[in-house]
Fold these 3 entries.
Entry 1:
Amino acid sequence: MTPDTPHQHGPGCSHTTPPSPPQASQADPRRALASQTLANLLKQDGHTLEAPLSALSERAGVIHAVFMANAQTAPVLSALKPRLEQALEKALGQPVRASFMAQRGAAREALAPGAPKPAHHGQAEPGPAAVPGGIHAALAVASGKGGVGKSTVAVNLACGLAKLGLRVGLLDADIHGPSIARMMGAGKAGKPEVKGGKLIPLTGPEGVRYVSIALLADERQAMIWRGPMVMGALTQLIKDVVWGELDLLVVDMPPGTGDAQITLTKTLAPQLAKGGAVVVSTPQAVALMDARRGLTLFERTKTPVLGLVENMSFFACPHCQGETALFGHGGVAREAEALNVPFLGEVPLLPAIREGGDEGVPSVSEPGSAAGKAFMALAKNVAASLASRQSQSLGGEQPGAHQQSAP
Ligand SMILES: Nc1ncnc2c1ncn2[C@@H]1O[C@H](COP(=O)(O)OP(=O)(O)OP(=O)(O)O)[C@@H](O)[C@H]1O
């Protein structure tokens, strides 16, 4: 029973109707006002989207307005929430909390005309048609588990490759724990603009253009979107962004090997065929086991693997300059050899790397530092590997073919 549906007594039913919280009835003029307020805001921002009001109720003097969201509207509504609540308060003359509820079959409705049909369990498979033509190649930065420094490597690779002369975009697809905005210093730059229903990426260090779901939602809010909404948000962050001409879109993948990762690799398949994936791991056995799973995902989706990266390789003490192999230095290089995958380089555990991440200053922007040198060496190896991939692609290799040659 939804809040708007009164309890119906069947023949012989003696149940008493449970007391319900104070709610607005269908005839309540506030419903129309709430719907109109959202419609006006969407129109103001140049959207042609609709998000019907599902319920309006009142508790302890606060009005709760629930709107239906689908894969397409969810990110827009999240970004709009503070303004929507303000506008609703003004229109209804009372404090208002707005929330959004997933619509059944939402992803299917969100498919663009001509996009591939939805795959199993009703989730959108956006397909290559969704990717803007200006994105020439993509680099997926992945890890089997969280916390190994994948986002740190993604940021420094993006900025390092930009320093080497590439036009680089950076997409924070780590929808459940987005940290790219902070690492790129978004606090200083504010929120991205929306023009004609498209998002204008922010420009960060070294001219890297970037977007993150964290820029659309409140950074403190837990990312609890599920299934189709995640797919929809990710697809929008690729296709509804004015990326312009990019030699490379670096994608900070969500950790693990679930549906979101598969959707991303399939959506960006042609671009990944000209770029590839790097898998980040710390050297200890547990992380390596997960990294292996990450590699299997790329094999399954026929994404070329450029190689493995060892992060937090050893602790380089800034006081005594001594090195301590906290997680067992060299584990990733050995794993790469065993799996016949290139080893791209190692990055030590350095307090400056964590500080740079928190302050929004990537290590490569301080080229003289130990961290800057380690990440630039990595970026150069990746650039060499990309160049060799692209010359192979130009040489007639089928896009999506699995490749694992040394850089
Ligand atoms: N080499 C390093 N030395 C010191 N600190 C590091 C290093 N690499 C990453 N960190 C720090 O470790 C923390 C986790 O890193 P990061 O967010 O990049 O990991 P992640 O694998 O992307 O995690 P998640 O997937 O959970 O978001 C951050 O505070 C980051 O600054």
Note: Residues 1-24, 104-129, 219-224, 394-407 have pLDDT under 50 and may be disordered.
Entry 2:
Amino acid sequence: MADLDLKNNNTISPVVNLQTLPHLTDYLQNLQTFTNPLHNNQFYHPSDHGFYISSSDVILRQILYNLAVPAPPQLDQQLAYHRAGPRQQTYFDPSCVKAAIVTCGGLCPGMNTVIRELVVGLSELYGVTQIFGVPAGYRGFYTDEHVHVQLYPKLVHNWHKKGGTVLATSRGGFNLHKIVDAIQHQGYNQVYIIGGDGTMRGAVDIYQEVVRRKLNISINGIPKTVDNDVGIIDKSFGFQTAVETAQQAINAAHVEAESAVNGIGLVKLMGRNTGHIALHATLSSRDVDCCLIPENSFYLEGEGGMFEFLGERLKKNGHAVVVVAEGAGQELIPRSAAQKEERDESGNLSFLDVGGWLKSELKHWWDRDHPGELLTVKYIDPTYMIRAVPANATDNLYCTLVAHSAIHGVMAGYTGFVSGPVNGNYAYIPLEEVAQAKNPVNTKDHKWAWVRTVTNQPDFVKG
Ligand SMILES: Nc1ncnc2c1ncn2[C@@H]1O[C@H](COP(=O)(O)OP(=O)(O)OP(=O)(O)O)[C@@H](O)[C@H]1O
Ligand SMILES: O=P(O)(O)OC[C@H]1O[C@](O)(CO)[C@@H](O)[C@@H]1O
Ligand SMILES: [Mg+2]
């Protein structure tokens, strides 16, 4: 029990504020504990010092300090998370585990790897045999047409090579009581939920309902977001793969622009509320003249605007490349009353095509201000191509570690938590915290300044 005695204890260190991690024993007494089956696993060496992680193993949220500031006051508020990894004692008898895995929201490279590793990890690390895939997102828990599929290592062995999610995903269809009723009815006692910010908010509701019903069911969330818009974790799996794939679109736009008279290559990249993909693709490409993201509003006409800047670039270089995140400039595009209300199944506002709008605005501007002169705008919208690919090597490893971390935490009885990388190490973070944390691009930091150095674009601050 040493592991648990420490779980809410802030006296481990006077400067650490260890985040409370929900545990099944918070509301269920006298749960049986078991020796971790890894103890008898021929491939592991649990007797080695440091193999098992205890509650006193923590990861600090903030790692940068200015030592010139005497006794930094912020140390008093230093947040820490429990470190992920196998615990000496578990709260599940593997032969009694019935695990469910579900994928929700949009696609992201690596979803299949996470599913695969949950199956392989549960099976090979802990000896769990009852593992089920819930098809078609949250609605798949309770709708009759979606049959839950039993998953086993042989079935999933090459899933990490596939883009998408073999389980299928969907938006909307979140019906809390039907979902928890179905979980209870099916006898699931471990539920692994893979999805983005909306999915994590749904997972919090499920967890809270499970606690309200006092069920011996552990709920785990694994953040998936190609937009990288989930906070606290370093980044989401699949993000790097998406950025890498986006490079191909930018390269093509550059080639097209260079090969035309007054050529503009325009690339629209995913990013609903955050411009991380556009930003990272811009930084790695170095061919981009202007990067537009939702966090930094822009304007077209007048001094310091887009048209003035692009006019100068065309004069100087004969071509220009513009990258725009899909959520950028939405406030500039005229919308009909119906378009203002349009939402997807999950309630997310539907965006208008900023790339198509920009292309037409560029043409109008050019014809108006440069009559008779050629302008070529090549618009590339790779949309789903950047997220419907298999994960690259780095993301695949990330998916494995995040899945195995999730399993260790669940087997140790934790619930209502997320496993994810914090400062390069895997941590357990309360689901509620992750569901609320956003991760916008910080346009005040060095990275955004670096984008502006690489592109030379204006800051779009009217002055
Ligand atoms: N606030 C919420 N409370 C409960 N469930 C939610 C909430 N927001 C979204 N959901 C449910 O979560 C699932 C996925 O949500 P959504 O379609 O917004 O994708 P996401 O998880 O945010 O992923 P992404 O945006 O990366 O595609 C849907 O089934 C949706 O109904
Ligand atoms: O067209 P769909 O599948 O609803 O998803 C589009 C959205 O999903 C995301 O890829 C996030 O998963 C956003 O970048 C994009 O706005
Ligand atoms: Mg979302």
Note: Residues 1-11 have pLDDT under 50 and may be disordered.
Entry 3:
Amino acid sequence: MSSITVGTSLSVVALSRSNARRPKKPHGKKLPQDSSPQFKPKAPSSSNDKLSSSSSMAVEATTYTRLPLKDDFLASSLVEPYREIKLSDSAVPDFVERSNELGGGEFDELSIEDELEGFDYGEYEVEDDEHEEEDYGSFEEGSDYEEGAEIVGFGNKEEGLEGGEEKEKGVPALMRCFDRAKVYVKAGDGGNGVVAFRREKFVPFGGPSGGDGGRGGNVYVEVDESMNSLLPFRNRVHFRAGRGGHGQGRKQHGAKGEDVVVKVAPGTVIREAREDAIEGEVLLELLHPGQRALLLPGGRGGRGNAAFKSGLTKVPKIAEKGEPGPEMWLELELKLVADVGIVGAPNAGKSTLLSVISAAQPNIANYPFTTLLPNLGVVSFDYDSTMVVADLPGLLEGAHQGFGLGHEFLRHTERCSVLVHVVDGSSQQPQYEFDAIRLELELFNPELADKPYLVAYNKMDLPEASERWPAFKEHLLAMGIQPHCMSAISKQGTKEVVCAAYELVQRIKEANKELEGGAAAFNLNHVADRITQKRNVPINEFQIIHDISSKTWHVDGEGLERFVQMTNWRYVDSERRFQHVLEACGVNKGLIERGVKEGDTVIVAGLELVWYDSPDTSGSSGARKRSTDSIRWPDWK
Ligand SMILES: Nc1nc2c(ncn2[C@@H]2O[C@H](COP(=O)(O)OP(=O)(O)OP(=O)(O)O)[C@@H](O)[C@H]2O)c(=O)[nH]1
Ligand SMILES: [Mg+2]
């Protein structure tokens, strides 16, 4: 008999966030030769489609290279044409002023919630007052009781966002868009079962009475209608469900761990966070208020010794540990849920359009990037027919790679069923501006280019815009697109645009209804189901891998892993049961068949053992006897 080394390995997964997007396709473009502003005074009257100019605009023979830049940021951009324009670079004087008035970034001062969820287990005892129990050594497992819902604030450390995330430093909190977050979730561990025996007056040798541990708390994700950003995750990153209570004497089972509910805004996409640059698998898309998904089921409670009583084992001195609760890092991403998304170059008049078709009052000003965060407005035709319209920040060339504000907001367009593309008629080359925006959308996500869209040529009240309209219209008609023209400021033509958008939205809704009708309702609990399925893998499903160089045998299987995790080595019968299970599920046989030799290391689901051939050949079967006695244990503490 000799000793064995045991090593339990816990791998801590450090996850980082990826900013990587698709690589930019080479455009091979140059800057426009003449991008100087040529704004003319505003024409006194409104205009429309019929107001086509007599002299159609002579399109300059320049190779269009990027979206027309406005004089506001031309100077700086021309020097470094591909410089990334950050929120902090854009001119937003009134906004900054307002945020200062409000107290200089009020969100920064949000305090961390103090509430702690989960259980305080305190001291755990098997004994009770009335019943004397056998002493099987110390049952305290202090380290097991630390768990409870943990709240970690984003301080300087910002634990949840480590790993290459570029932060918008220097930008007041009011301007940041909290539509991405990274959180840690952990289901509660199951409580431990205990070994206890019934001892009463006149019943000196009562049977085993150790109760089972309670089930760990579950992690749920729920859509909270009142949330419109992922801002709360700035203060709280870790969500841990409570662990199950431990079993007690007199067959008392432990209490169930407290569940934890992660509340997210409607439209949140939940991905599994990954270490590498690749985006993790989409686990859930929670769109509608009230949707609730069981994400991680709590660990099973360990069985107490009462559960191990059998005809052969009348005095079982064995109990299981609770099953560990699953854990993972999640990436949350909020995408606006709107029927119509207004896209276009900066200063095209997107916010103006939203302001005239809905009650929304977005910031409107004659400089690019007036809109820093998406604005939502509800357009109502009558009581029944309404649609939600989102006005998005302006797009620049390279938006798909993060230029301007595009990167942050382009993904919001993914959720809109229809896009209204506003083109600034007063720009130098409206048709090229249009093409460039289309290209950006396509580069960001080819599915965006396939979305139904309308083109609204804006600022028709300006003479230069109405002059360029015929050429623009011709350009688009050649592409098979029927453009609309309007003057958002004077509301001319806006009704036609909105009605056309509404019609498109309705058509898409009808089509989707038909599709949904055929498809089965989506199972929101599929992540938890997958985990449960994994837990139910039988113990005899394992694989043996032999590493010849290090004379190590790896025996891996989901069932075995769970069994090793739940074996509580402090109880004397655990070793015997472990040996028995290895024998019964065929691990020993498999190892012997493959030629395991004395002294070889055997790692069973992370537990390191040394193989010994038993010299004792007595027993019904030599092979079985040998293997049963062949794995030795060190002195377990
Ligand atoms: N003449 C004229 N000016 C317009 C019209 N629509 C918008 N504008 C002006 O164009 C400027 C920009 O308008 P916004 O609505 O802020 O443009 P935007 O597309 O939302 O701009 P960003 O949010 O910066 O991307 C403002 O000065 C508006 O008054 C229009 O139909 N005619
Ligand atoms: Mg705007």
Note: The domain at 108-334 is CATH 2.70.210.12 (Spo0b-associated Gtp-binding Protein; Chain: A,).
